[in-house]
């Protein structure tokens, strides 16, 4: 008689769980086309954060009534970007300001719900793993840092583009309906200095805009504007970018797309995470691969890393300055 071997209950449950996770992954991947372009680097977030990127459902990013749906901007800068006349005599439109040394100091609003805090932390982790951007959490009674980001829950998802030139607190809203890692990454990329992909001056080679299906008050959201405030660093147009609008953005008729990719197989508007070229643009803009060396001896940097200095809020600023390579703050 053949012997039967029974697995321990814990092991058998693990196998069942693994099978379920595998089936969920297959189900998720069945909705995602395999394409010949660069594979998007979503990391661990593919299954739990999958959404129908072409779904004709108004997004929270579109509901704030702001410039392009989710950008905080002053009137003169908006006129400049859209080719209008700057009305204020003393208005000076400066280049987008970036974060010195790629360091963003941030805090959470005291009224922010735990769920949103968790999603924001995961979005920050997603960026930290793939770029050299450093995020340093600061206390709510901060008096040391003038430029910092406060995450809060406003009416939708939005941010300004770049660092506020007046060196004051700036906000990123992760409101109701914004609880996706890719949406957090999208808004942080605005704060880092990035615009929407569809506003590139060369976009007409890659997408067609159906102006007849856009409400008149939202037509400004589809204008191209000069790129002297930004750059694509020679990277190709990126359908996969987390900064791209969806097919049905600001549609009058939710069954008819407003953006039609020239590549009929392309999916646009994903909010899963950074694409390959999103990551490359961040790392190029913030010079992630230049001069990333430890200023302390390997002995000291490794020792402090082992003691948790790279992750410690108390010592992280010092480690960013002294041991960026050991702490893997340099990006990929």
Automatic annotation (TrEMBL):
PROSITE patterns per UniProt: ASTACIN (PS51864)
GO BP, sorted A to Z: molting cycle, collagen and cuticulin-based cuticle; proteolysis
Pfam families with a match to the protein in the record: Astacin (PF01400), ShK (PF01549)
Source organism superkingdom: Eukaryota
Active site: 187
UniProt KW Metal-binding keyword: yes
Binding site for Zn(2+): 186, 190, 196
Keywords: Disulfide bond, EGF-like domain, Hydrolase, Metal-binding, Metalloprotease, Protease, Signal, Toxin, Zinc
Names of required cofactors: Zn(2+)
Record EC number: 3.4.24.-
Residues annotated as domain Peptidase M12A: 90-289
Top-level EC class as recorded in UniProt: hydrolase
GO terms assigned for molecular function: metalloendopeptidase activity; toxin activity; zinc ion binding
Signal sequence range: 1-36
InterPro entries linked: Astacin-like_dom, MetalloPept_cat_dom_sf, Peptidase_M12A, Peptidase_Metallo, ShKT_dom
Cofactor note: Binds 1 zinc ion per subunit.
Functional note: Metalloprotease.
PANTHER family on file: DISCOIDIN, CUB, EGF, LAMININ , AND ZINC METALLOPROTEASE DOMAIN CONTAINING (PTHR10127), METALLOENDOPEPTIDASE (PTHR10127:SF780)
Protein name in the entry: Metalloendopeptidase
């Amino acid at each position: 008689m053949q012997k039967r071997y029974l697995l321990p209950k814990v092991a058998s449950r693990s196998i069942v769980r693994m099978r379920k996770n595998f089936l969920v992954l297959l189900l998720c991947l069945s909705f995602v086309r395999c394409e010949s372009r660069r594979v998007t680097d979503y990391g661990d977030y593919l299954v739990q954060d999958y959404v129908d990127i072409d779904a004709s459902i108004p997004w929270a990013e579109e509901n704030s009534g702001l410039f392009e749906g989710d950008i905080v901007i002053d009137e003169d800068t908006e006129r400049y970007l859209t080719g209008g006349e700057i009305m204020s005599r003393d208005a000076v439109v400066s280049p987008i300001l970036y974060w010195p040394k790629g360091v963003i100091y941030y805090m959470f609003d005291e009224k922010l719900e735990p769920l949103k805090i968790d999603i924001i932390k995961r979005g920050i982790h997603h960026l930290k793993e793939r770029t050299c951007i450093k995020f340093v959490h600061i206390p709510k009674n901060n008096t040391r840092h003038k430029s910092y980001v406060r995450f809060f829950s406003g009416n939708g998802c939005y941010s300004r583009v770049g660092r506020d030139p007046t060196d004051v607190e700036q906000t990123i809203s992760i409101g109701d309906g914004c609880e996706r890692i890719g949406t957090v990454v999208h808004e942080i990329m605005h704060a880092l200095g990035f615009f929407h992909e569809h506003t590139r001056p060369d976009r007409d080679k890659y997408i067609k805009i159906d102006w007849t299906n856009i409400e008149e008050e939202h037509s400004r959201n589809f204008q191209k504007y000069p790129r002297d405030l930004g750059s694509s660093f020679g990277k190709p147009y990126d359908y996969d970018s987390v900064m791209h609008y969806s097919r049905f953005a600001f549609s009058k008729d939710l069954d008819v797309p407003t953006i039609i990719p020239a590549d009929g197989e392309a999916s646009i508007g994903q909010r899963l995470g950074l694409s390959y070229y999103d990551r490359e643009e961040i790392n190029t803009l913030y010079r992630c691969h230049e001069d990333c060396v430890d200023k302390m001896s390997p002995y000291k940097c490794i020792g402090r890393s082992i003691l948790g200095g790279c992750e410690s809020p108390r010592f992280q600023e010092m480690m960013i300055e002294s041991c960026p390579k050991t702490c893997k703050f340099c990006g990929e």
